[in-house]
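Long-time lurker. I teach an intro course on protein structure, and each term I like to show students one example going from raw sequence to a predicted 3D structure in token notation. This year I'd like something fresh instead of my usual example. Would anyone be willing to generate the tokens for the chain below so I can use it in lecture? Attribution to the forum is fine with me.
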Amino acid sequence: MKKPSIKTITLNRLLSFLLLAAVVMSIVIALNFRMLSHNIIKNEALSIADIIKAGLTAHMKAEIMGKREYFLNEIKSVHDINNIKIIRAPAVNVQFGPDLLERKADELVRKVFQTKQAEFIIDDFGVRPSIRAVIPYIATNQEQLNCLSCHQVADGTVLGAVDITLNITKYRSMASWLLMVLLIASLTIILLIAINTLRTVQVYIKEPLENLITKARGAYKTHEPVKSETFTTREFENVANEINHFNKDIIANQDMLKQLNKSLLELNNEIEDTLRETVFTMGVIEERRSKEAKNHTRRVAEYSKLLATKLGLSNRDIELIASAAPLHDIGKLGIPDSILFKPGKLTEEEFETMQNHPAIGYSMLSHSERDILKSAAIIAHQHHEKWNGSGYPWGLKADDIHIYGRIVALADVYDALLSERHYKKAWPLEEVMAWVKKESGEHFDPELVDILVSNIEEFVTIGTLYSVDKEEK
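-- Reply from a regular --
Happy to contribute to a lecture. Here you go:
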């Protein structure tokens, strides 16, 4: 799952907060504006009621109450009034008698008569929003209205009520328009804040962070510090300084590790060189003890190296074969002199004893974890195995014989036939090659025989370079 970027997280959280704030603010403003609108509407209704009461008083004093309907219709047309009702209170009916044209008092009007307080019912969510205002007409002799001059009632008596129904569509339209303006303004502010925030994140976080990463990589590669003063914020400057300290420690540790690795490599190479020299010396000791032809150990190692190279083995395999080959006959150290140096043909029992030297060599070398000695153990154990399975000690056949054993087997026999031993004369090269070819697929790996035949000049050169007449190097 792809993780969101800093810009995305910042924008999401900021927009969520701003939208919530805008909604809350809009609701608060809408409620306050509705309350203010209601107060304005109520005051308008009260003002109209005062005009009506003043007009009715004037009509009464002029004794023209019969024309009041004309007056009320004029008031309705001027002030966008849906309906006007004048309801007499009981005190007036007692004095003047009931008026058949008067409206009957409903529950709301009776409440006004009782409490002497105006009552308002506002419907601002309907199809045609309106307000019903029932305002009491209270007898008074104050100011210009002197109700007591006409009405024989006590001061403060409710004479009636003005029941007005006003159309307030204009107020709702004004409120809707104001809320729309407020919403557009809020969205505009939110958009500007979001753009500014994204720009701030881009300029002061994202770009400096990417720049810091690039410079940190370059500083690590070039071993040069990051220039912290190029960053505009203190936080990134501090991070750049921390990266410089970190790189400095890492580089110092790497230099130390390189030096340690170099020392370890030199020590390992020295150990490997010492081990190779020791292995070769052990081979020479065995060679001297067995009274083999001089430089036999060196020649077998070089022949084996050449065969492995021509066969296309890895450099490590070539190195191991060349280093381990000198110990191919190390097991002969465990064979009695009477058998090892017997000039004539060995008896069957003596030959069985001689055949133990591969196992003896393997037991001498197999306990080591060093690659050279492990390779030497394989060679010592298998260099007398034959391709057709008639060899010893296990009678392994073909590819079951390790390639190290097959290579050294051919190199050892090739050199032994060309060398004089206490029990035989040296063979001419032509006879050796004829016999090796005959044993291809029987004693030796056919592919290795083909390599020997195809590169015989190089093998002859090695034999000449390390002949019995040459000093060991």
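Some talking points for your students: The chain has a mean pLDDT of 81. The beta strands are 81-88, 119-123, 130-138, 158-167.
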